[in-house]
Amino acid sequence: MEPDSLAIRQMYASSPVLSPAASMEKMHLEDGFRVELAAAEPLVIAPVAMTFDERGRMWVVEMMNYMPDTAGTGEDLPTGKVVILEDLNGDGLYDNRKVFLDSLVLPRALCLIEDGLLVAEPPNLWFVEIRNDRPGKKTLVDNKFSSGGNVEHEPNGLLRALDNWIYNAKSSTRYRKKGSEWLVEDTHFRGQWGIAQDDYGRLFYNNNSQNLLGDYLAPGFGPANRNQRSMAGYNENIVPDNRVYPARPTTGVNRGYMEGILDEGLRLVNVTAACGPTLYRGELFGKEYYQNAFVAEPAANLIKRNIIWQQGFEVLGEQAYAGREFLASEDERFRPVNLYSGPDGALYVLDMYRGIIQHKHFLTDYLAHEITNRGLQQPLSCGRIYRIVPKGKKAMPVVLPQVPGQLVLLLQHPNGWVRDKAQQLLIDKEQTQAIPALRQLLQQQDQPLARLHALWTLEGLGALRTADVLPLLRHLDWPVRMQALAVLPSVMTKASYRNYLPALEQLVQQQDTLAAPYIALLARSVRPFSKATADRWLEVLMKQHPDNNLVADAVISNLQGREELFYKKVQALHPDTSLAMQVQFKKVLQAIANAKTRRNQELLAREFPRGAALYTTICQSCHGADGGGMKALAPPLNNSEWVVGPKSRLLPIILYGLTGPILVNNKLYQAPEINGDMPGVAQNSELSDADLAELTSYIRRSWNNQADRVTTEEIRKTREKYKDRQEAFTMEELNALP
Question: Which helix (H) or strand (E) holds 349?
Fold first, then answer.
């Protein structure tokens, strides 16, 4: 007979701190693999992000002061570091530590580029020159890298992608170094914690409650129409299955008291802290694992494996197993927060190794009680980095050469990390003498991945020519054509654009479904040189692909200020209002209509300064600056009956949160379209009743909302009315309130 829930809780009443060796014994790993320790405290403490350099050394971000206790006491102290770890004797266990940067406040991401290091220390993004492993000149790249406030909802990642741009999770900004200048551009908003790419430079990410999200299209085509809220092909749900299979009861999750969060054995049912994805691109695991997406779930103490593939223009995926995980630990303090495919072909796991993983802004009374009763606050001085390898194989250290010719050869390496790093070193060192060899590699028909790296390396060196790209636009293999289309905005000029038109016209006439959204997106680049050509392509694509969401949104992305004109053309071509082309146009026209009647947010911010600031730091990352909601995260607040309706329904949501589906303006929002849970802030001691009254008033009077203010007394009375409540409200409960 299975023990009842009380017996289970008694069995797991304590959560002892285990040594790395003892913790490894608690891991249940896929057959045929083993876990090796790469580094542990005191060499590394609370690791949250990492990158390898060309010598195989780890550069690690330590977020040492994350949640020292349930109140977050001292979280803003400058204890964070960037350290360099090195394996001096070559035995696989890193044994040397250098502190590169210290006195940082909650650092969260890093990226090696040229002669320096990008470091994210919210709200700033810094570039620090490296001088013999010591910091040199420090340059502020972006003082608005994040809006500050909530640690769980600030940008991170700094992934240097195939297209030579640096992308982030929880962000809509990308970066690139050009000489001594930094380029900063808008891109699509992606994910929450962690970001990765596949062999074709497509980006993958997730949020707490969704296993794996990602892009169907190359990342470089950012949003160009401010009237368009989102674009098909980005932020797609790659693996809809969010089920998890922990190796132990997981009562220490934030909403463990709610029905459906834990099963009868008190184990988490679905992901609640999915993060740190990586696509395995090494050769050590074998072909069946190549480009599998591994996802960390620290709340459930496990690592998930997903298999992904392309079907037409879509990227699809599924969990690799039913009823089990790639790795699941019985050690509650095992907290995998980031995963990396390493230069040696191993899978690297950053284990923050601590009891508290939930930030104070969203910490429920239930979880605070769990933490206190089972002594999960301390210690804060642990941290482990593990290496996963197949049994019978050894992960061999990799040191990349500095010789240009040898780096070009490494663009053919079976390990994606090695190919990426070789490309980056050729660009960083301005190895222009490698250009002839790169052009030769670009012609190698039997080396498709190497050709793509050669293409983008030439682009990064500023040496890509029309003659290099044209043959690839006509290539039979779609991945090659895709990269040729993706690189065109970088090389198309007034002098050269005509050379590309015949090949692009041919793709249009062939009605190439895969190329169609790219042609529409490229119309942006052609329009400055030939408006007639760009508009003709858009009209032809509207006619050819009336029920293709990707094409429809790509067309609309060109049309800021001209949506109504082209919608009339769509109506004439395709009277059926159910077709994607009609549906997507109507969405953007409705957004334009809403925008015309929005209130002046600057005036509101002066009227409610504290409310506006709190909205930016607490709410905006999920509900959007315009209150319109965000795909995969949260429903709209603008024109929402829950916001402008009775305060008796809104204030309980603000204080205690909302779980499950929610009907807004006759549209049902539910997971996976949005995150299924909105946390309340009743337990946040930093927010007074006056703060919450001003925040709620700001929301009720913003955008198109025209509702009366909320008073401090109304917040106080609501708090008193539900003082014993821990769980979030459901839509059904709220509807039953007077």
Answer: strand 347-351
The CA distance from 74 to 667, in Å, is: 43
Distance, in Å, from the CA atom of 371 to the CA atom of 359, rounded to the nearest integer, reads 12
725 shares its domain with 637: yes
Is there a contact between 266 and 251 (Cβ–Cβ < 8 Å)?
A: yes
Alpha carbon distance 441, 451 (integer Å): 6
Do 41 and 77 fall into the same domain? yes
Which of 432, 454, 482 terminates a domain? The answer is: 482
Phi, psi (deg, nearest 5) at residue 466: -55, -40
Give me the pLDDT at residue 2, please.
Answer: 55
299, 273 contact by CB (below 8 A): yes
Q: What are phi and psi of 110, to 5 degrees?
A: -155, 160
Helices and strands in the chain: count of H runs, count of E runs: 23, 30
Same-domain pairing of 242 and 306 = yes
CA-closest candidate to residue 313, choices 481, 473, 515, 538: 515
Look up the CATH number of the domain holding residue 459: 1.25.10
Alpha-carbon distance of 232 to 618, in angstroms, equals: 27
**Does residue 628 sit in the same domain as residue 580?**
no
For 248-297, how does the pLDDT look when each residue is reduced to its tens digit (9 = 90+)?
999 988 888 878 889 999 999 999 999 999 999 999 999 999 999 999 99
Rounded to 5 degrees, what angle do the CA atoms 175, 231, 178 make? Answer: 15
> What's the CA gap between 458 and 439, in Å, rounded?
8
Residue 487 lies in a domain: no
d(CA 51, CA 421): 11
pLDDT band for 242, please (50, 70, 90 cuts).
very high
Asked if residue 615 and residue 570 are part of one domain, the reply reads: no
Q: How far apart are CA 692 and CA 656, in angstroms?
A: 12
Backbone dihedral angles phi then psi of residue 387, each to the nearest 5 degrees: -120, 125
User: What total number of domains does the chain contain?
Assistant: 4
Q: Which residues pair with residue 181 across a beta bridge?
A: 178
Residue 651 maps to which CATH number? 1.10.760.10
Place of tokens 């909650």: 106
Rounded percentage of the chain residues whose pLDDT exceeds 70: 99
Domain with residue 383: its CATH number is 2.120.10.30
Can you tell me the distance from the alpha carbon of 607 to that of 95, in angstroms, rounded to the nearest whole number?
57
State how far the Cα of 475 lies from the Cα of 144, in Å rounded to an integer.
42
CA distance 29 to 384: 17
Name residues whose C-beta falls within 8 Å of residue 616's C-beta, 6 or more positions apart in sequence.
Answer: 147, 149
Q: Is residue 395 part of a domain?
A: no
pLDDT > 90 in the chain, percent: 73
For residue 118, which amino acid is it? L
Residue 524 has pLDDT above 80, yes or no: yes
Tokens in use for 682?
């009743």
Domain hosting 502: range is 492-595
